[in-house]
What does this fold into?
Amino acid sequence: MDAYRELVHWFPEDIIGLQELFVVAYLNRSNKIIGVYQVSRGGITGTVADPRLILATALKVAATGMILAHNHPSGSLYPSVSDRELTSKICQAAEFLDMTVNDHLIVSRDGYYSFADEGLL
It folds into this structure.
């Protein structure tokens, strides 16, 4: 997937298995990346991704879409309940602002999990 290839570089090799990071790629109407924002950098078991900061940044850069991405230091590619809840919350808020969440990726050294590919968006 193109999104994975673009975003995996935001997860440094020495960090991806140690700390959880959450990044957002902001897209224009042509689904081209117009900017990437590291929303948070947490610990071994989690990080805080504030939907207000994600959407405020989207408004500032005049994005029409976004791709969410984070890693699990454990290497697990399956979404947690909190991953699903956060994704749902951001999708609902984005829809209200006429934006779309095109995907949410969980990335690892070995690949990714796509919420869109799994029908969770």
